[in-house]
Amino acid sequence: MTQQRRPAQPLDHTGKAPHIPIMNILDLDARWRRFNDGTRSCPCCGRQFSGIYDIGFDAPDDWAYGPRIDDADLEVGEDRLGAEFCRIAGRYFLRSVLTLPLRGSDEVFAFGPWVEVPEPVFRAYLATIDDPAAPFPPADGLLANTLPQFEDEQGTAVTLSLPDPTQRPQMTVTEGPLADAQTQGISFDDLLDLYAAFGDDIRPHLTAD
After folding, report:
1. 62, exposed or middle or buried, with CB in 10 Å at 0-12, 13-18, 19+?
2. Separation CA 63–CA 88 (nearest Å)
3. Nearest Cα to 147, choosing from 115, 119, 120?
């Protein structure tokens, strides 16, 4: 067996090798191309897609008082729901970001779930709002939403970190199916199944041009 040498790339007028775009494996999937083509309209309904969209949650599952109105905080007695913080019967919650890499691409899908945290962790995060330099070491919490395709993971132990004080805390799961998805990624079919479980089955809209 002999080693094959790649042919030298031709140089452009500057004397440099031209940039060659790297194709992702998913680029070979016609459904993926349709999903990312913002100019395409579904032939059956006219719906258009422009790629991955994330799934967020307006409140922890245990919030029982309905949604906020006009983006204002909702207060019921001692309980309070804001865009980023929540308090329910003396329990404290922070909104976070959980990212899952999409295998075969360089993109990620994100959940925006809530995490129940101890009061000191809640207060420490509040302090970073006024002072981004305030410390927020990695903190333990519990997943407070039921995620589509990961329904059994509600209440699982997670870790929150704050690599960027201007962004929501990042969630890391250490064990179980959700941890596997976070470290190993999910397939495009997994993503489509996830959307369907959330109530938006887009699979029929990606089957034909």
Report:
1. middle
2. 7
3. 115
pLDDT digit of tens for each residue in the chain (209 aa)? 333 433 444 445 555 555 555 679 999 999 999 999 999 999 999 999 999 999 999 999 999 999 999 889 999 999 999 999 999 999 999 999 999 999 999 999 999 999 999 999 999 999 999 999 999 999 999 999 999 999 999 999 999 999 999 999 999 999 999 999 999 999 999 999 999 999 999 999 999 88
Residues 6+ apart with CB under 8 A from 117: 92, 93, 94, 125, 139, 140, 141, 160
- pTM for this entry: 0.86
